[in-house]
Amino acid sequence: MRGAMQKRVFRRVRVLFCLAALAIPAAACAAETAVDGPNELARVLARTGPGDVIELAPGRYETRGLRASSSGTADAPIVLRARVPGQTVLATGGVTLLKITGAHWVIEGIDFEGGPDSHHALHIAGGADGTVVRGNRFRNFHAAIKGNGEGSPRRFPDAVRIERNVFLNDTPRATDAPVTPIDIVGGQDWLVAENVIADFAKDGGNRVSYAAFLKGGARNGAFLRNLVVCASLHGGGIRVGLSLGGGGTGGGVEDPRTPCNTGNCPEAVDMTVAGNIVLHCPGEPGLYLNEAEGALVAGNTFLGTAGIDARFPETSARIENNLIGGRIARRDGGRAEARGNLVAGGAAGLGATRVDAWFPGWREGDFTVSEVLPRPAGAPPMPVGSRDFCGHPYTDASPPGAIAGTGRCIVAEELIRRHGPFAPSLPIR
In sequence order, which residues have a C-beta less than 8 Å from that of residue 347 and are 6 or more positions away? Predict the structure, then answer.
């Protein structure tokens, strides 16, 4: 009790000091607040400001309907983090755990846990520019991270970074609602990098789910060096890997900043998909391009998938230097220029004979190259300074795909390096 009173007194003094010294930069008035319960967390979120750090003590916090509407700045973001990464659980049985509408928040080190009817762990909306979601785990949500616009006129969050998180569902989601762990509608300059996304099945409605998509007029976004395992711990449903465009966007909710003069508006514009490994999407594309204009798809590995689908006339893509178990399909007028790809399988995405010779341990997550992969004639060079899934540099002799072939690449070791206490042990079937 006494400690809590002292903290309240300190905060009042700090606020009065800052009000009396408006010329002082916001970061100078920042506070670090220790939180050890859900009610206190809600109160602290309501009065935070630029540069503040909210640190959650280890434990389990049952909560729902939290709001983060205050804004930090690019130089002084508001940080919400676990004191010890991996030892703080924010759990909910509600629809949304935390909605972020303020700019420049950093969320890190937290274990987010949903229930059977939980849609979103984080809903990033409106003016939530510059949000960073880094080093967390998300379990048992329909769409753990939802990004979209709101208001009139609609405002969309830009420059959001989703990095080094783990997304898992223990069982297929029994719902008619969309099931996509990273579900982004609109916005510009979103980065989705070095995440693990696995077991995101939908057991209801159309039974179609995606690992992640950017759609709704989204622009200049990127999927980089993610690991997607569509079916690992459980099967069933129609599981698509990454997507630009998803299943399309209903009228009135798309980002109006994307130019559209034809009446058939692109879902995603000027996107990059590079360095990703996508595995075990039975009979479904590892990458689905739906009305994706100006997409670059380079240096990815798709195994145990149906390959890449480029669909509808609005889609125009450069598909370069990929290792594809499956095929490149151009459907319903979709356009794709393909160069330097190594297509190692038929429509079912098998081709196991060749893949097993190149990566004997790939089913166990060992992508160390044991046999030199052929480099297709006319393959374009990888960008100068670019690195593969395991951080090794590409060279002029590197084969197509997310593995440069210049060093040891064991997925389990890479996941421990990236995700620490949240690194999953995934059986790869």
Answer: 306, 307, 326, 327
